[in-house]
Every structure is written in structure tokens, then in C-alpha cells.
Amino acid sequence: MALTGIQIFKLLPKTNCKECGVPTCLAFAMNLASGKAELDSCPYVSAEARAALSEASAPPIRPVALGKGVRAATTGGETVQYRHEKTFFNPTLLAAMVGSDISEADLQTKLKKWNALQYERVGLNLRPELVAVKDVNGNAEAFAKTAKTIAETSEFNLVLMTDQPAVMKAAVAVTTFKRPLMYAATAANLAEMGALAKETGLPLAVKAGSVADLVPLTQKLTEMGLKDLVLDPGCREIKQAHQDMIAIRRSALKDGNRALGFPAIVFPCEMAGNLDVETLIAGTFVAKYGGIVVMSDFAGESLFPLLLERLNIFTDPQRPMTVTQGIYEINNPNESSPVMVTTNFALTYFIVSGEIEASRIPSYLLIKDSEGLSVMTAWAAGKFAGDDVGMFVKKSGIDDKVKNKEVIIPGYAAAIAGDMEEELPGWKITVGPREAAHLPAFLKSK
Fold it and tell me: Could you give the dihedral angle defined by the CA atoms of residues 64, 65, 71 and 76, in that order, rounded to the nearest 10 degrees?
């Protein structure tokens, strides 16, 4: 049972050191009780108190780690119902399904195609994480062979889908090293699937006919010592499935129902007859509140918008996206290439760098840390002042790369030119266009 804020406060060191980010231990205790803080934020909590507070400090929805390698990921761990309340942490994992009767050649073709579906966006590599292998005929050997091929020859991690414990055991034996998700324990096979999950330490999905029917199943599994569970309330009708996702999230967060405090898995592939409709349905569950979304296939025209939706939802709305401060070389610049400077707001960087690249003029682009603010906002907030920008240019190392001592600043920051000239004697400060779209013509004119 979760502890109250006062109960938590009694176990804290009561130093009011402020190192946790709030003024008092009492305030920290209240945040901890409401799921708005993590126990690790307190540097002085004792081991005894940590043990006693483990339940209170645990996220209301348990984070479940899936897979190994470069596509390993975590689902769950959320602490708020709505993104604007704080942030969503662990992005929805995307999976595509194959049957256990697929031929070796067809499987390799699919894996090669799916592996190529990777997109760079604001400096991030966007890609799907999982392949769901479905047992179609109860053949343990074929099921294990397909799962093993995916595990050993691709980056993808696995969802193993069968309700037969013997078939599951065969696949688990050859894929444990990839930490697959076992799908699924039901009322009929609960004891055997639970025992296998406990023996192997693998996460286990739980399937029932409704949200209410999930509760006794998860309670029995947690009593067995299993903690890494994923929920499937079983409905394959979009309206009810959507309501089920909301009910699970609300029950865990608002009502403190630990029996439903786990991420959920949904199957758009079983709710539609074609990939286009599946994609629309999948978009619904990326937003609310699928921890894992299983498609019938991956195709660029459907996967890319889902990856972008996921990126937009699972970023902190209170923290702008940024790129690293430094020198960026575009179009293979040389010592005679122009030098430009702007802020580290990710959107600014990608628009400006894109226009420079399109101009085909070799250039250096200096990115100054402005705490993720755009040029006008950073200038107004004093984060892109002339003396600071000048000092950054001086220390960046660009002086060693170019003979042409001229730096082009954004037109919206023209007011900083004078201060930059004082900070950079011997350099010419040129005011560039206000809009990035005018950069190619501006550079060509020079």
C-alpha cells in the first residue's frame, strides 16, 4: 500500500538541504507520494528508509525493459495521465508481425526491408523496435526457428506469441539472450506461463477478456514474484479498446490500482483489414495509451508518420529540443568557406543547415548554446548577446580552420554586431538575412 506524504516525511533525513530541487523535505515527501518526484533525487536517504519507501517511490505504472542490443527499450514507467502535466517518458514501442510458418527466404527479405526503415530527425535515429512472431500451427520447432533467426540475424527484439507453454518454452530456449516478451498468459495457462517467466526472468504479457478480468490474473502473477508484466485487455474493437487503454491508465494513476499498474499492448493488426486503416488506429494508441503497438507490416508511408507522432508526444513539452554546441561542416568546407552562427534550437539548426546544404556552398555553421531558444527569443532573453557570441566564436576553434575572418549572423540578431566586433578584433561581422529561406541567394551573392 502506498504511503502518505507525512509517512514518507518521517522516513526522510529532514535536512532541508534543497539538493532534491525543492525547499524542504516535507515538500519532497509530498511530491514523492504523488508520483511527481523520484527517491533517487534525495542524496541522503538511508538504506532502511529506501527499502521502506520503495513502494511509494515506484512509478504507478511499472517500467518494463524489453530486448537487448541497439534496439533495447523500456515501456511503461509513466507518472501522469496527460502529457502537459509533466511529460511522458518511455515511447510506445512499434512491432510488426510474422507467422511462424514464414519461409526462411521471405523472413530475410522482410528483415532486410524493415531494418532499412530508419529516419534521422532533429539528430535522432527514428526506427521501430520489435518483431512479433505468432504461432500459427502449434509447431514448436518452426516457432523456435523463426524466433531464433530474427534474434540472431537482426537488430530487432521479439514478442513471442503463443498460448501453448510447450511451444513458448522452445522459443524462449533459443532467444533468452534477446530478452523477448512472452505473450501471453491467460486464465487457462497462467500457472505454466508464470512459472516459465519466473524461471527465465523474462517479461510476460497477460491477456484477458476485459480490464476487470485482468486484475485477478495480475494479482496471481505478482504473488508468484513476477513484476515485469504487460497487459492486454483482449478487445479488438477500436472504440472499446481505446476506452480500455484509458481505463487502465486512469486506474493505475488516479486510483493507485497496482494490479493494473503495467504498460499495455494493443493490436491494430487485428482491428483492420489493411495497413492504411491499421496506421490510423495505431496513431490513436500511440497517443492513448499503448505501450506496445503491433502492426501487420512495416511500410515507410505508414511507419514514418507514426514515428513522428511518437517523437512529438514523447518529448518533454517544457524543454525545447536542442543540438550540441560546436562547429558543423556542411558541403565539405575549406579555409575560404563562409562562417555562420546561430542558436542551438533544433528546429533552427535543421532549417538553417538544410538551406545551406541546398545552396551547395561549402560552409561552416557555428551552433551556440542558447538553452534551446530560437534566435529572436534567445536575443531577447540575453542568451544570444554580442559579447557572448563573440567569445563563443573566439573559443570555438574556427579561427584555425578559415583564412576568411568574416562571420555571418542572423538578421534578427543584427543588434549584436557592434558588441561582437569589440569581442572579435580583426573579424568582419556581417548581418545575414532574417529568414533561412533567403540564405542560398545571400551566400551565392557573396
Answer: 20
